[in-house]
Specification:
The protein has about 220 residues and is an alpha/beta fold. The chain folds into 2 domains: about 10-35 and about 45-125, GMP Synthetase, Chain A, domain 3 (2-Layer Sandwich), CATH 3.30.300; about 150-155 and about 170-215, no CATH class. It is about 25% helix and about 15% strand. It is built from 5 helices and 7 strands. The protein has helices spanning about 20-30, 50-60, 70-75, 105-115, 140-145; strands at about 80-85, 90-95, 120-125, 150, 185-190, 200-205, 210-215. It has a 4-stranded mixed beta sheet. A hairpin with a 5-residue loop joins strand 6 and strand 7. It starts with 18 loop residues before the first helix and ends with a strand.
């Protein structure tokens, strides 16, 4: 049993999984003495280039929990994969927006994928600057969205001045958003928010079918 007052180490990634998971992990840790910390040997990037490429490939293949037809690389939220100073593999993710509820799942799946690829020490950090933009979605990702009947976003707005607040009806015809089912260019917005905050619900004015649209951010 762990000595009274001894620290119990809980992996940082579990904090995003909820209090129950943290308590469960802590309970398991108290079943025996904590392992002795051994200083990690920092890998040389040049000598372990293949290892780093394996780490990048494993992180890039993780699927987005809300849009599973996209990988984190296709979605553009995977910023970098590198060795940290303590030898751990450090993965930087940028969420689609601040407070995105899928970020915890992204982090957990990234850690799991890298552990399965043979990297025992993994750290996922969040990078908010520059903020994510739909322009970061890859061409392959845009094709995958369309193949799954989700209209990909157009060019994101990049205003240099303050954005004015405009109050207007949201259910308007938008020729710039083509229907991913029949290809017609005239569609209307039914709801500003769909299954997630990043998507809107639209309807084609030709085939009358509803579909989702990834909003430009």
């Amino acid at each position: 049993m762990t000595r009274p007052g001894a620290a119990v180490t809980v992996p940082a990634a579990l904090f995003d999984a909820g209090l129950d998971a943290v308590l469960a992990e802590a309970a398991r840790d108290t079943g025996g003495p904590a392992p002795r910390a051994v200083p990690a040997e920092v890998p040389d990037a040049g000598a372990d280039g293949d290892g780093l490429e394996r780490a990048r490939a494993a992180a890039a293949a993780v699927r987005d929990p809300e849009l599973p037809m996209l990988t984190l690389a296709d979605l553009g939220v995977l910023r970098s994969v590198a060795y940290a100073g303590d030898g751990a593999v450090e993965v930087a993710l940028t969420p689609t927006y601040s407070g995105c509820p899928a970020l915890a799942e992204m982090r957990a799946e990234t850690v799991r994928a890298l552990h399965e690829a043979g990297f025992p020490e993994v750290r996922v950090v969040t990078v908010l600057d520059p903020p994510w933009s739909t322009d970061w979605i890859s061409e392959a990702g845009r094709r995958a969205l369309a193949e799954h009947h989700i209209a990909p976003p157009g060019p994101a707005p990049h205003p240099s001045d303050p954005v004015p607040l405009t109050l207007s009806p949201t259910r308007t015809a938008a020729p710039g958003v083509a229907c991913p089912l029949c290809g017609a260019g005239r569609t209307e917005e039914i709801s500003r928010f769909s299954a997630t905050s990043c998507r809107a619900l639209r309807r084609c004015l030709a085939c009358r079918e509803p579909f989702e649209h990834v909003k430009e951010i």
